[in-house]
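Researcher: Here's my situation. A collaborator sent me these components and asked whether they could plausibly form a single complex. I don't have experimental data yet, so a predicted model of the whole assembly would be a useful starting point for our discussion.
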Amino acid sequence: MAKKVGIEVSLAVAEAAKLANADVVAAYPITPQTHIVEHLAELVANGELDAAYIPVESEHSAMSACLGSSAVGARTFTATAGQGLELMHEVLYVASAMRLPVVMAVANRALSSPLSVWGDQSDVMAVRDTGWIQLFVENGQETVDNVLCAFRMGEDPRVLLPVMVHLDGFYLSHVIEAVLFPEQSQVDKFLPPFKYPLPLHPDKPLTMGAFAMPVLYSEVKKAQEVNLEAAKEVILECWGEFGKLFGRNYSPVERYRSDDARVLLLTLGGFSETAMTAVDRMQEEGREVGLVRLRLWRPFPFAELRQAVKNAEVLIVLDRAISFGGPGGPVCSEVRSALYGEEKRPKVIGFVGGLGGRDITPAGFEEIVNKGIEIAQKGSDKEFEIYGVRE
Amino acid sequence: MTKPEGELTWKDIDIGAIVTEPGNASQYRTGDWRSERPIFDSKKCIKCGICYIFCPEGCVEQKAEGYFDADLFYCKGCGICARECWTGAITMVAEEE
């Protein structure tokens, strides 16, 4: 029987990596991810998880060690946040281009300066183009489920790509929730052992991450792009299989009371649950406001997004990061671009909010919706609004 | 890789562009980086081999009669051999084409 326990979500992430039977964990602690790697260190030290735990001197080294262990065919896990993710930056591209299916939990955090350990999605958006599969989760159960799914998706021989599981720093990482942990035997059934097709081994020398001249680089990048796009089918298949085995279903674009809604909010991550409360309140008042959430950020779910918003008149996108000097938040910008070619499409209104740990309450989401509708009707001379900022 | 690099399509790329065949760097023509080529004058050459020792590419070879010459498939035209030669037997000349 699966076991339901009250647990801090960070510890639950570590327990999920244990259930997945990770072989190697190379990590550097950083707030608000620290409890994840601390608990993994405990699990390894106590002999509960038979893995090599590599304490490193920086996140750059953490990801580099992860590449090495994944390249020999070891199931590899790590976690980071904020500045740590940025310090890994150049190595992230290497993981995806070398097709090494490292799984990484990211407890999303704001970026300095000023120093902020609190949550937003600036760190995620800066690594948008690194070629990783990227998933967002909204609560403890989704986190555990999707860490397990991440290993299966990434390690599938048709995919072989690294996967980031994004959970909100503090708002999700540090809360205690009721989480249903599946039986080890069920997990083993869902997640077959990792077999890398071309592992590094002294008996069969290989060169990984070699040099490519201009005559070859474009072909390598096209192959990488096709591979990440094609991963979507396997991601869907994986979530489908997970649903069959465990009864919890996930999809690239999640919809909440959105079917008949003329106005839609679009969010990513843990704030979505607060937005749901706001949507409930507004629908009780008879307002036609619904919610769509992007669960799959990369590869971007174009078809599912278009389908989910096609009947709406206004689509209000909340970003928790700023693209400075740009068209608004990165999510809003991509959503607009995805809908631009559609004959029938909603007006897309961009908001940035929830930066550096600033909360958005259900009443706050109602304010965003009201202001968004007003902008849709009357227009605005700004590309986007920053919600809740004191003028 | 069975095809020359310039004929490979994206579908021919191995997983992660991993090179599965060791030693294939020898197929890489570094000679086309060259803007000057070394000309060896056998009348001045004393067969000491200093050019062979100093060549960073390892592309200078001793020929049958004991004189030296560079393999232009690999020679990058750095000119170190010409600078080091005791007798001035090596001259760097511009690649015209």
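Model: Some features of this prediction you could bring to your collaborator: Chain B touches chain A through 16 residues (CB under 8 Å). Residues 50-54 of chain B form the longest helix (5 residues).
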